[in-house]
Amino acid sequence: MYISWIIPVRNGENILAKSVSEVESYLKSKNFSGGYEILIMADTRSNDKTIEVSNGLAKTNPAVRVFAGETGGKGGAVKRGMLEAKGDIRLFSDADNATSPEHFDKMMPFFAGGCDVVISSRNSKDAEGAYQEVPESLVRRFAGKAGNMIIQLFAVWGIWDTQNGFKACTARAAKEIFSRSLMLGFSFDIEMLAIARHLNYTIGIIPVVWKHVEESTVTLKAYIQVFVDVFKIRWNLIINAYK
């Protein structure tokens, strides 16, 4: 197995089938040696037909595996996916494919060069050529900028976009990082990078062209919780909770 592609989803009945189709079309076109798998991490708290759609995709496609459950949030879903995956490379992406699957092309040279973790950024300060094709709302942009200042100061210095939902790890790094992770909500990205740094893993960054999709379930309340979690992550680093 070369690559495991993990898709956490909640209330995604309107977008999931299209997103999985796009991911599989990309994976088929690359003809990776060893093959691929697509893991759908479906949240049973969904109040639409996400579970039914997920199971339907698995019935018609042997490459799709569905894990349905209440994991506590996106971070919990990604954690389970990373630990259940079989791939040498394990990638998670948002269910709306705001970062299109072909961006993985840019990640491959980093892994070939020895990187343990490769992330994507919408900020040109991280990687030249990054930008947002369709801007987020003013509130989300403000929350994002304020949050990044806090994130850099207390958790992950030097990375300007820790939150874009398109990140990948080697199997070894995935097991070491996510077996230690504690954050189950949207702050898991920050914790993932903080633990990677703590374990002295090499992190590569690719630029992405990102398109905001209004189907996103991220709320202002979720942003505020991320700010609170950053201080928890800092404290966990201080007390060596990720030993």
Quick structural summary:
The protein is of the alpha/beta class and 243 residues long. The chain has a seven-stranded mixed beta sheet with strand order 3-2-1-4-7-5-8, sandwiched between helices.
Please give a structural write-up.
The chain is an alpha/beta fold and 243 residues long. Helices cover 42% and strands 20% of the residues. It is built from eight helices and nine strands. The strands form two sheets. A seven-stranded mixed β-sheet has the order 3-2-1-4-7-5-8, with helices on both faces. Helix 3 (74-84) packs across helix 6 and helix 5 runs parallel beside helix 8 (220-238).
- Superfamily at the CATH H level? Spore Coat Polysaccharide Biosynthesis Protein SpsA, Chain A
Any idea how many domains?
1
Helix coverage percent of residues? 40-55%
Q: Biggest β-sheet: count, sense, barrel?
A: 7 strands, mixed
Low-confidence stretches: none
Radius of gyration: 17 Å
Quantity of strands, as a count: 9
Number of helices: 8
Fold-level CATH name: Spore Coat Polysaccharide Biosynthesis Protein SpsA, Chain A
Strand content: 15-25%
In CATH, what is the class?
Answer: Alpha Beta
CATH architecture, please?
Alpha-Beta Complex
Distance between the termini: 29 Å
Overall mean pLDDT: 90
- N-to-C series of helices and strands: EHEHEHEHEEHEHHEEH
What general outline do the C-alpha atoms trace? Answer: globular
- As laid out across the biggest beta sheet, the strand order is 3-2-1-4-7-5-8
SSE class: alpha/beta
Domain Glycosyltransferase 2-like: 4-137
InterPro entries: Glyco_trans_2-like, Nucleotide-diphossugar_trans
Pfam families: Glycos_transf_2 (PF00535)
Protein name: Glycosyltransferase 2-like domain-containing protein
